[in-house]
Design a protein that fits this description.
By secondary structure, this protein is of the alpha/beta class. The chain is built from 8 helices and 15 strands. 28% of the residues are buried. The structure holds phosphoribosyl ATP and zinc ion.
């Protein structure tokens, strides 16, 4: 009997490649990273295909692969039946409309009857329709930002991260259509065996994401402050309390969310906490 494998497609080369490989590797999946287009993971029922990102949603729809990692912008543009299984938090960018710096721009209505160059015709068309703007879309596949300066269009709609490309081409960002990040997408329905493998992978990714947003915290405190401090950093179930080799003092271990961290440190110090250590967590399974 052949073993069931989940097939996942990741970008062959480009901005998503490194993050996608890192995600799988940190999920404990090891695989050769040679020049092949398809590799079988050594220690997980997964087959990894290296493809162009634009093709991945369609390959999912056509059952060539079960899952993939793409930018949300590509998922929205390609309109396949693949769905988001997990947001991954890397390759963040936005899809924005930009106009020449000197060009007057008041609001969306300023785009009326203008020519917009973009590689994202579907998303732009929906945006214009939603805002009841009649404008012409000019599809180009690359170097969109030069279109206005060569007289090809009045505005562009392209991906932006730092904004440097726009400004060095004399353009200014006027509307954000979509905020995007890398997403793990997959078929809406798959066989039970494949779904089990996907769930395993999603579980591993979740424990990585939990770990990234939390820190392990150790501190010393007077025994009299244990109750108050435990209230501030309750951790996953409760803090661990260990006696120190000094009467009346304990070591308290817990987990704290990164976003609340600085705020809590002030409170902890107020209650007499000392020797506070904060350590990154590699995996976190609640
Ligand atoms: O060959 P393949 O088709 O697989 O790759 P690709 O060339 O289509 O994609 P790639 O590798 O350039 O980008 C893959 C994904 O990365 C995109 O679909 C986005 O989801 C995400 N991403 C994140 C970006 C950017 N940031 C980004 N800054 N994709 C492109 N850019 C480009 C943008 O098009 C513009 O030319 O970078 C320039 C703007 O950058 P700033 O920093 O100057 O604003
Ligand atoms: Zn692409």
């Amino acid at each position: 009997m052949t073993e069931t494998l989940l097939r996942i497609a990741i970008q062959k080369s480009g901005r998503l490649k490194e993050g996608s490989i890192k995600l799988l590797t940190e999920s404990g999946i090891s695989f050769g990273n040679g020049e092949q287009l398809k590799v079988r993971a050594d220690n997980f029922p997964l087959e990894i295909l290296f493809l162009r990102d634009d093709d991945i949603p369609q390959y999912i729809q056509d059952d060539v692969v079960d899952a993939g990692i793409v930018g949300e912008n590509v998922l929205k543009e390609k309109q396949s039946d693949a769905v988001i299984q997990k947001r991954l938090g890397f390759a963040r960018c936005r899809l924005s409309i930009a106009v020449p710096r000197q060009q007057a721009y008041r609001n969306i209505t300023s785009l009326r009857n203008k020519k917009i160059a973009t590689s994202y015709p579907v998303i732009v068309k929906n945006f214009l329709k939603k805002n009841k703007i009649d404008a012409e879309i000019h599809v180009i596949s690359g170097s969109v930002e030069i279109a206005p300066s060569i007289g090809l269009a009045d505005a562009v709609c392209d991906l932006v991260s730092s904004g440097r490309t726009l400004s060095s081409n004399g353009l200014r960002e006027v509307e954000t259509i979509l905020n995007s990040e890398a997403v793990l997408i997959g078929k809406k329905r798959m066989t039970a065996k494949k779904q089990t493998i996907l769930n395993k992978l999603l579980f591993r990714i979740e424990s990585l994401q939990n770990a990234q947003s939390n820190k392990y915290i150790l501190l010393n405190c007077p025994d009299t402050a244990i109750k108050k401090i435990s209230g501030i950093i309750p951790g996953m179930k409760s803090p661990t309390i260990l006696p120190l080799n000094r009467k009346g003092w304990s070591s308290l271990h817990s987990v704290v969310n990164e976003n609340e961290f600085w705020e809590k440190i002030d409170q902890l110090k107020k209650f007499g906490a000392e020797g506070i250590l904060v350590i990154p967590i590699e995996k976190m399974i609640s």
